[in-house]
């Protein structure tokens, strides 16, 4: 019984890990990249670095704050697309506490 339960849990975890779609934004127009993110809520975009040949870059890009985990904020990011070098999208990042602390100190 324990084996069946363990197998079911592992299958569920694997299914959740595979649930997010992956795309190469350089094969899509900027509008298509943005509409895909809006439609799916969150996607992984993977593309080659322009500065370091052969280095793959990837991140999870989201439609709204609701797709970020607790403690993260939605921030603007830019990815290359088929029709532009900097397509505006959003990803989730942990806030830079040092930045927020300096802003607070300067105000008060």
TrEMBL record:
It comes from the Bacteria. Residues 1-19 form the signal peptide. Keywords: Signal. This is KTSC domain-containing protein.
